[in-house]
């Protein structure tokens, strides 16, 4: 039987979370949270603590999304340079934004403490270090821009752990944890707080019979009525357009390698584009990077590139023990979208566009969203408002959307192969069929799965991802398994029969 979700397993997935049954009938709840990642669990936790009745629905298993595939640096080091951030937002907004991430780390620390969660939470320093090909004045520029943004970075001549002497900037008192252990602890709290949780329950539609009441429909045709809905599915499944043109999906890769000696516990990021990110977990070094737009696989294997980079830069690593990939959503102006969903339904909220700082963003979402539901002010609500227009970074915004639109020209290209027999086992290809294209997965022998290659979100053409054995849409990041079932992204329905 083929995997229903991704093929690779992250270093965290040996830790199991409690199991929950799928929904077996209609239900009524005050708040329905959709998505069982760090966002969904944290939002449900905060709502339940405030006395709300909460039902959480997850299409697969809790933690089976990106929160189980992360590298879990808890920091305010961004994917975008501080010097670029200043070009997009005023300093007041930036300082509030960064302070939000700093205080989210404190929130995690206090939940860990209060709920007694054993999750290897540790305060550690982080270092941004000069990459192999970055210009010399990059760090000086970042140091000065950081100061304007309210982040004080200490220059160091030698960054810890690196084989060679390389300068860097120290971010004091960041943190790290084991994400699955943290989510396991949070789930146990949810059980104690009376939150109802259903796994293997995929939401296929959200209707609003009245502006104040939502009807959430599941794959097996059960209805959940809710006064409020929180869409915590990493990228929203309830909006077709508004958010998906303001953020873009990227694949990112991670490997874990054995440590040959004990090393200092620090977080590292380099200044390359795309950047590499590194941390230590018990006896392993975890290294991530090699990001690219979803559905646009590079020619060279990203894992080989990551391993080569690691061996060039660290002299204490042994064998690779795990390799996995995941997806992040990059907002056009660095700040995510957390708040009321753009649209007429005032009772639906979303939390998305976290980029590489999704752990702390999930915590910020767990503070903003409950306040919005209770009609209370939150100081960060305005800057995260999903309805805000794209700000000053218009060039990047246009470039990313041209890339998305360009994907539709794939209709005009030839088939990947002339006929199905040429597709290797456990692999997939696109085959032109009259005016349309089909995606064909060759399981083994004479077993082929054929689906239309037209993405059910907005008609992009899916592409084969040979690492995770999935069909990925380059337009807005929807992904489907080999049976055509959506596993990620805005698409809610299956790839149709050819
Ligand atoms: C390799 C990698 C490294 C990263 N490193 C870091 C890092 O170091 N620090 C950091 O802060 N962030 C990092 N991130 C980003 C961070 O992991 C994510 O932003 C964060 O986990 C998103 O959490 P979430 O709960 O919003 O989404 P998810 O964890 O993806 O949860 C969403 C859930 O919704 C479910 N779902 C989707 N559709 C439906 C539906 N229709 N019905 C019901 N359920 C549905 C999914 O199955 C999933 O379980 C990294 C990400 C990756 C991939
Ligand atoms: S994800 Fe939008 S068209 Fe496929």
Polypeptide structure, described:
- This protein is of the alpha+beta class and 498 residues long.
- It folds into 2 domains: 1-392, 3-Layer(bba) Sandwich (FAD/NAD(P)-binding domain), CATH 3.50.50; 408-488, Rieske Iron-sulfur Protein.
- 23% of the residues lie in helices and 30% in strands.
- The strands form 4 sheets. Strands 3, 4, 5, 6, 11, 12, 13, 14 and 15 form a 9-stranded mixed sheet that branches.
- Helix 1 runs parallel beside helix 5 and helix 3 crosses helix 7 (358-373).
- The longest helix is centred in the first third of the chain and has 24 residues, at 91-114.
- The radius of gyration is 22 Å and the shape is globular.
- The two termini are 22 Å apart.
- The mean pLDDT is 92.
- Bound molecules: flavin-adenine dinucleotide and FE2/S2 (inorganic) cluster (FES).
- The site of FE2/S2 (inorganic) cluster has 13 residues, from loops.
- Residues 455, 457-460, 473, 475-478, 489-491 line the site of FE2/S2 (inorganic) cluster.
Using the coordinates above, name the CATH class of the largest domain: Alpha Beta
Q: State the helix count.
A: 9
Helix content: 10-25%
What is the general shape?
A: globular
């Amino acid at each position: 039987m083929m995997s229903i979700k991704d093929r690779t397993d992250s270093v965290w997935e040996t830790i199991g979370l409690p199991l929950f049954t799928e929904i077996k009938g209609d239900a009524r709840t005050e708040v329905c949270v959709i998505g069982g990642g760090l966002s969904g669990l944290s939002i449900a936790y905060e709502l339940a603590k405030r006395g709300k009745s909460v039902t959480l629905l997850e299409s697969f298993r809790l933690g089976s999304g990106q929160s189980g595939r992360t590298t879990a640096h808890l920091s305010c080091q961004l994917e975008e340079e501080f010097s670029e951030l200043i070009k997009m937002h005023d300093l007041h907004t930036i300082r509030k934004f960064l302070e939000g991430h700093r205080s989210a780390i404190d929130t995690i620390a206090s939940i860990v403490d209060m709920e007694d969660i054993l999750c290897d939470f540790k305060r550690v320093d982080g270092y941004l270090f000069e990459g192999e090909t970055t210009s010399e004045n990059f760090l000086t520029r970042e140091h000065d821009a950081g100061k304007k943004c309210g982040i004080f970075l200490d220059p160091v001549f030698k960054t810890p752990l690196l084989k060679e002497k390389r300068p860097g900037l120290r971010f004091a008192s960041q943190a790290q944890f084991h994400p699955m252990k943290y989510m396991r602890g949070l789930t146990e709290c949810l059980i104690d707080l009376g939150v109802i949780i259903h796994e293997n329950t995929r939401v296929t539609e959200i209707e609003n019979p009245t502006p104040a009441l939502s009807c959430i429909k599941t794959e097996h045709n059960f209805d959940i009525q809710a006064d409020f809905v929180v869409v915590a599915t990493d990228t929203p499944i309830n909006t077709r357009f508004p958010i998906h043109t303001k953020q873009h999906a990227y694949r990112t890769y991670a490997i874990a390698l054995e440590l040959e000696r004990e090393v200092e516990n620090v977080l590292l990021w380099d200044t390359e584009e795309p950047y590499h990110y590194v941390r230590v977990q018990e006896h392993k070094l975890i290294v991530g990077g090699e990001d690219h737009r979803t559905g646009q696989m590079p020619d060279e294997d990203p894992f080989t590139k990551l391993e080569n980079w690691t061996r060039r830069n660290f002299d204490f690593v042994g064998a690779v023990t795990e390799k996995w990939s995941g997806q992040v959503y990059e907002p056009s102006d660095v700040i995510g979208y957390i708040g009321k969903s753009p649209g007429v339904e005032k009772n639906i909220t979303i939390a998305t566009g976290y980029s590489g700082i999704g752990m702390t963003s999930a915590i910020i979402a767990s503070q903003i969203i409950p306040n919005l539901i209770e009609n209370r002010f939150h100081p960060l609500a305005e800057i995260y408002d999903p309805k805000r227009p794209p700000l000053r970074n218009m060039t990047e915004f246009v470039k990313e959307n041209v890339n998305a639109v360009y994907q539709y020209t794939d209709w005009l290209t030839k088939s990947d192969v002339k006929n199905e027999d040429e597709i290797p086992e456990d692999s997939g290809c696109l085959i032109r069929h009259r005016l349309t294209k089909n995606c064909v997965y060759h399981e083994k022998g004479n077993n082929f799965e054929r689906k239309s290659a037209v993405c059910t979100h907005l008609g992009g053409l899916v592409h084969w991802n040979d690492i995770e054995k999935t069909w990925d849409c380059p337009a807005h990041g929807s992904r489907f398994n080999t049976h055509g079932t959506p596993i990620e992204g805005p698409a809610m329905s299956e790839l149709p029969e050819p």
